[in-house]
Structure formats: C-alpha cells, structure tokens
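Async update (no meeting this week)

Hi team, since we skipped the sync, here's where things stand on the single-chain job. The sequence we agreed to prioritize is pasted below, unchanged from the tracker. I ran it this morning and attached the output directly underneath so nobody has to dig for it. Comments welcome in thread, and please keep replies under the output.
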Amino acid sequence: MRIPIGEIALEADLIVPADAVGVVLFAHGSGSSRFSPRNRHVAQQLVEAGFATALADLLTPDEERIDERTRQLRFDIGMLAERLVGAVDWLRTNGGTAGKPIGLFGASTGAGAALVAAARRPDAIGAVVSRGGRPDLAGDALSRVRAPTLLVVGGDDVPVIELNERALAQLGCEKRLEIVPGATHLFEEPGALDAVARLARDWFLRHLTRTPAGGRD
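Output:
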C-alpha cells in the first residue's frame, strides 16, 4: 500500500490481524527497507501476539538510489522523523488502525528518528522500542520523549552500548536498557533476534494494552 505524506507517498506493508490490540510502525535505518528480514521477523512475532504492523520505506525509490551513493539521507533524522509523524497521523485515521494505540520500533538510525517522532507526537505514541539503535541521534528531543522506551543492544556491540547508555541517561520517560548476551549489531547469532522479538512483544503488550487508568484492557 502507499501512505500519502505531503507531496510524496511511502511504500508500505500493513498487516492488521482480527481484533488487533495495537499497531507498531517500524522505522528502518542505515540503508535498510521494509524488506529487512530482521524487522520482518520481529513484525511476524508481533502479529502473532495480536498487533497490527506497518513496515514503511521512509525514502522514495529515487531517494534510495541517491542514498546508495551518498549515504546521507539515512542520517537525515529530521526528515525521517517528519515522515514517521506523517505515517503515524495516517495510521490514526486509517480504517483498519484508527483508534488503536501506536508503538514505534526503530532499528539503527531509524531509532533516532522514532524517538524524535515520539517527542513530536507525545499524545499519539504509546511506546518505543529500539533494536541496535542510535537513540543518541535524537539529540535534544530525548528529554521530551514521554513514551515508555526500551533500548535493546547486543552484548558484543560495545560502541553502540555506550551510545545507548548516554541516551538512556537523557530520557525522562519510563525507560530500560536490555543487553542481549553474545549478540552483535545485527543480532545474527542463533536465538538473538528471537530474544529481541520477545522483549519488544512484552514491552508493547505492557504499554500499548493498558487502559488510561493503568489497568489492562
């Protein structure tokens, strides 16, 4: 499907199971796309847990070709966040997802964009999960994030652990850093990605299925 955002439209894959308890929008990063096998694996686990999932390309095909040469657009966090906000606004009014609580799942540079989007839409975003992300790229927006945020990093991804620890200190919301032992940046080790999926599922179940009073639906 195509999600209209201003003068462009983003290519997206949307799955809405019956009686979905919420919707999770994926923010890819570092040259990835909606076809990322890692994000699709996590998305499948979320669908099985009752969540709708939206995997959208945040760059147009022409922009992707430019980015393959320059590797610059993937670091344009402001632009990526703006498009995530547009996708969130669309999900809030789309027939299949309207009224559902929304979470963001960001990977790599997409995590920075997801946190900026969460800061811009505090009333719309109910939770954020970062996988091997660069939350530090959200900059000053970190202090304005209100959505409960889970940062997941591989135990052997030492430089990114340090970046996540610094970002964690700047977040003023409910937050947690989970380190998956023995995992590297792409979580390619046996069982590592399943661990990410379980952590994300539990975080979204906890924070996207609560009533306003704090109980469960």
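Quick observations from my side:
Strands lie at 2-5, 8-15, 22-27, 51-56, 102-107, 125-131, 149-154, 175-180.
The chain has six helices and eight strands.
Reply here if anything looks off.
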